[in-house]
Amino acid sequence: GQQVMQIPQYQHVQEGEDFTTYCNSSTTLSNIQWYKQRPGGHPVFLIQLVKSGEVKKQKRLTFQFGEAKKNSSLHITATQTTDVGTYFCAGKEVENAGGTSYGKLTFGQGTILTVHP
Amino acid sequence: DGGITQSPKYLFRKEGQNVTLSCEQNLNHDAMYWYRQDPGQGLRLIYYSQIVNDFQKGDIAEGYSVSREKKESFPLTVTSAQKNPTAFYLCASREGETQYFGPGTRLLVL
Q1: CB neighbours of B64 closer than 8 A, spacing ≥ 6?
Q2: Contact A103 B44 (CB under 8 A)
Q3: I need a surface site. Which of A19, A110, B69, B107 has the fewest CB within 10 A?
């Protein structure tokens, strides 16, 4: 079945440093989504990427979708203490012809970001 | 105030006991999902439902059961067959491609 690998598992940075997490899928994806989970909280949707090579920005966050639609990255510029949490990618597999969309996502293991003030 | 609610926030289970986790949504979403979260393993799909009276097994369905008698409700039962139930359980509903998560239930085995 589809597997989504995410690295690194942990990342400790000083406030103001940049941060990047990478996501790789074993199969071609229809789309990829990114979620953030604050400590003790639940995942919250950040963004969805659909097109090959797509780049989207949200303030200090930059999201990329690879040309082959099998990998993605999230880059945070100049981290702040409010950025702490676990960042998950979640991929939706390309369906075969005649398939029914169930919206089934496969989540990566997540990257736990710690920001030291 | 729309959203997804899960109860209880914490749940303790004795050995051999079945427990049911509640998930309710008033977002009018058709699709709902149950995930299990363990440290370092991300979210794993237990069951999902696309519509009332229909549900499908996810990747780790063994030891769990669900029902979907109402659009708003998708309860998860953790049965005694689930040998390692201690985890954080998250319910979600879907609109378009986006999943919206509830606050979660933390299940602990005594």
Answers
A1: B34, B46, B47, B76, B77, B78, B79, B82
A2: no
A3: B69
**Predicted pLDDT at A96:** 59
| CA distance linking residue B70 with residue B23, whole number of Å | 11
B41 closest CB neighbour out of A43, A102, A109: A109
What's the mean pLDDT in B12-37? 94
Q: Specify the residue for token string 């780790």.
A: B60
Provide the residue type at B48 as one letter: Y
**Closest-CA residue of chain A to B58:** A104
**Nearest CB partner across the interface for A42, out of B56, B97, B104:** B104
Q: How many CA atoms lie within 13 A of A83 on its CB side?
A: 27
Distances (CA, A) of B56 to A49, A87, B32, B60: 26, 27, 11, 11
Residue B2 pLDDT class (50, 70, 90 cuts): low
Q: Which pLDDT tens digit goes with each residue over A37-49?
A: 999 999 999 999 9
